[in-house]
Amino acid sequence: MKYLYLTTMSLAACYVNQASAQALCDNQTQAPWQYTIDITHEEQRIDQAKITIPSTVEKHQVLVDSFINNIKPVTNDEEILHHLVKDYAQQLWNQAVAQVNDTYDDRPLYWSRIAMSIALKNHLANHFAGLEASTTHALLWSLETHSRGMSDEETHFNPASAKKVVITGFDPFYFDNNIGTSNPSGAAAIQLDDKVIDGVEFQTVVLPVRFKDFSMSMVEHALSRFYTPTHDNPADVIFTTSLGGSRNTFLLERFAGLRRSSTAADNQGCFSGGSFFNPIIPYIPYSPTFEFLESSLPIAAIEPHQGQYQVDFNQSFVTIDGGANDTTGEAVKLEDIINEISVSGSGGGYLSNEVSYRSLWLKEYLGSAVSVGHIHTPILTTTEIAPDFSSITTQISPYNLNFNEGLVNQLEAMIVEGVAD
Known about the structure:
The protein has 15 helices and 14 strands. It is an alpha/beta fold. The strands form four sheets. The protein has a seven-stranded mixed sheet with strand order 2-3-1-4-12-5-8. A hairpin with a 4-residue loop joins strand 9 and strand 10. Helix 6 packs parallel to helix 8, helix 7 runs antiparallel to helix 8 and helix 9 crosses helix 15.
């Protein structure tokens, strides 16, 4: 069960201990969820980032400063403020895509969004004290989504493209142990957005590492437009991607589980409320009842495209009654486990599994022919062993250009070649 162990347990060790972190945040499974003007645990980290990685935090500082200066005189006009927030959020995404060049670095986008969010919250607190909670939420939602590649204006495929591919990645995480951390899945999304390679066109988005945003249906908001042929943006294949699983392997995850079971915190220090022995069902639109769903990616076409990193088809899963399968075990049919209570899918019980389930459920609910599935990327870690061998600590390594570049280039190649086969 080596892959199962890595995807469900090792990332938990990468986060702050549940007992020492903030108390469980507002209930993650029951609505309503809204953004507020409170500065979050995630946003408070920017002070340390400015000291430790100043050039990264300040890469888009001219744009951030322009945003701050332009919203400053807007003290009583919500419509103008909405326009400015949307416009600058889109500019931030476009600038990040345009300037990523050969850095393969997702961190400047992340920290600039944090800076703009703090500035907007402070402005609302100082000048819009009586603003309705729903309006505050709408402004912050606009900032988040439009700076993540989720704008309707920015996500249109060219009808002439031979293949249309959507990729989702994630923000960096694990900051409490390493403020300079990067997430290659997010780097891949930024690097590939709007690219056309051998007839394959990419549209991408970057998702937050926050349970609350998933409960607010951000995945569905980002992806639903790509499923239906009646829309002008239908995709051929949707790849959700995330960091972690194996140091030297891309894992093509077969099964996605319905429930949250990881006890790892998210970027806000919040926990899902679920555990390995008590997995919980998050809020998901259209009330899915299937405990497991199955990848529809062209695995047979993708897996042979090996490179610097191995590519494996991971068929692991765990059910509450102890049913399990490892990555090399005899293949299990989906109908055999679809109604068993899920603990973890092939990608574990954290948000990587959840984005996989939500994207597959959209396909099921909408009756779409789009191929959908999840890829876990290799993970770069460092291991520290105590002099007396009393403890071994494994941590995600900070941003590494060579690692991100090699990983993103192989991911690009295996997707382009895989969907063309």
